[in-house]
């Protein structure tokens, strides 16, 4: 009975939680050299300049390795390279501003000298975001959802596209029994958060906004599945949606596979997301995702 009640609530979600429904506006939505559009989903390749990320920590920690990986991803078909210097895996330890700048700025500068590929900076620190844009980054990706007024200020000053992600808690606490109080469940709470943060950014003058439900960031398997099954509710906010489920624990929980063997599950989740309205997927394995996306796009 409870399941049927929840389903009924979710069907009413757009009117109750989202307000006036909109279609994402892709007009003149450029991220660096690439144009975002409903008929051309984009692939973002992940470059973690960290020693402790959950699935690839250490392989791109040195500057030369990170630059090589970024350029390889571009060759394999990545539209955007997302560079981050702070692990966001559960229970990860925060790094200092000085250390994060030391990790990411030289990599961004080196990639920019060798390529005009679109680059996004993955950070929650305003100073890192500002310096990254000065070094050549084309977008700011904030897993904190721009809840820091300093991040909103930097976004408004830089006038670069931004990615607003939902996270329940912090990387240190997010997977400690995450719960959602909203009567409409995780979908309503995530949608409400994203709508509110986008409103703050728009009021501050930020024009190009992408939203990300934050798969695995303070969510159980059930929460993640509910978000993916109701992705159209998030698309109804009127902003392009990015989904990043690459190698995440939800795939391991379903398939029983270790983090090193989750490519098939990652592709399945990302194609589902694209079929249900997502505009960008964020991945570790660019080449196989590019092949899958090319076939998906041709069929569609």
Report on this structure.
The protein is an alpha/beta fold. Helix content is 45%, strand content 13%. It contains 12 helices and 10 strands. It has helices spanning 2-11, 13-18, 63-76, 97-114, 126-135, 149-158, 185-203, 221-229, 231-235, 249-255, 263-275, 286-299, and strands spanning 30-31, 34-35, 42-48, 80-84, 118-122, 139-142, 162-165, 209-212, 242-243, 280-283. It has an 8-stranded parallel β-sheet. A two-stranded antiparallel sheet has the order 1-2. Helix 6 links the parallel strand 6 and strand 7. The longest helix has 19 residues, at 185-203. The relative contact order is 0.14. The model is unreliable at 1-20 (pLDDT under 50).
Low-confidence stretches: 1-20
The span between the termini is: 37 Å
The helix content, as a percent range, equals 40-55%
Helix segment tally: 12
Report mean pLDDT, rounded to a whole number.
Answer: 87
Structural class: alpha/beta
Q: For the report, how would you describe the main beta sheet?
A: 8 strands, parallel
Order of SSEs? HHEEEHEHEHEHEHEHHEHHEH
Our estimate of the beta-strand percent is 5-15%
Counted beta strands: 10
Please compute the radius of gyration using only Cα atoms. 18 Å
Shape: globular
Strand order of the largest sheet: 8-7-6-5-4-3-10-9
Topology readout:
Elements: H1 2-11, H2 13-18, E1 30-31, E2 34-35, E3 42-48, H3 63-76, E4 80-84, H4 97-114, E5 118-122, H5 126-135, E6 139-142, H6 149-158, E7 162-165, H7 185-203, E8 209-212, H8 221-229, H9 231-235, E9 242-243, H10 249-255, H11 263-275, E10 280-283, H12 286-299
Parallel strand pairs: 3-4, 3-10, 4-5, 5-6, 6-7, 7-8, 9-10
Antiparallel strand pairs: 1-2
Helix pairs in contact: 3-4, 4-5, 5-6
